[in-house]
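General statements about sequence and structure are easier to judge against a single worked case. For one protein, we set the task of working out the structure tokens from the amino acid sequence alone. The sequence in question and its structure tokens are set out directly beneath this paragraph.
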Amino acid sequence: MSLPASAAPILLALDTATDRIHAALSLGDTVHTLDLPGGAQASSSLLPALGGLLSQAARTWADLDAIAFGRGPGAFTGLRTACSVTQGLALALNRPVIALDTLMAVAECTRLADPLAWSAGDTIWILQDARMDELYVGAFRWDGSDWQVSHPAELWALDEPARRWAPEGAAQAVALRWAGNAARAYPDQLAWLKARELGVGSSADEGPAQPSGAALASLALRAWQRGETLDAALALPLYVRDKVAQTTVERMAAKVAKDAAPGGVVSA
């Protein structure tokens, strides 16, 4: 699909892969953002919230050049919401879409908090809560102007980070730069990791990085400049969990295995 000639595209970006609605409307150097409760509310509140962003900037839907969406990984319902809303809007407006990596948006949120702290070659791991004692994990390397995927998104068991980076009997944990909400979601199991978390500001006490509106806008603009737009029909989610629900028997079996395992943690 050919790109509009606009030197400063008007891009709408959204992500509902977590329990928050993150969105942004970028117009050149001006970016309007929002951060609202998501989860079950996302399907009903997302469109009005996006309309509010446009009103705030005195723009209409027809002014958009493209719509960017967080494709995940993340909550099944949240991903479906982001993709369906993006696809519906793009088809109605005859606009292209831009697929964004939700974990990369978390990395970008961290970088934007302190851009001067990042040098070419720096790598960050993103660990996000995937529920069911599991994590969405990926790693990204900053090349000086953009992120490169160094470890594609995977689903890890909750004990996998310790197995990789703080093996039992090791004198000290492996050096690690990471961000995300994993330690906040599992404070007891990942207490050792919390001390090295990169927050969104000067310290981790300010909270975990997230796929913020500013991060989404930044990634969307760079993707636009590279010509990475897609037809609306390709607004599809990224799933890394093959199965999103368990039967009652499977849940009971998992609980029995967990209770019987040393420390109550089942190995992957």
The CA atoms of residues 127 and 137 lie 5 Å apart. The beta strands are 10-15, 20-27, 30-37, 66-70, 97-100, 123-131, 134-142, 147-157, 178-179. Residues 10-102+211-234 form a domain with the Nucleotidyltransferase; domain 5 fold (CATH 3.30.420.40). The chain has eight helices and nine strands.
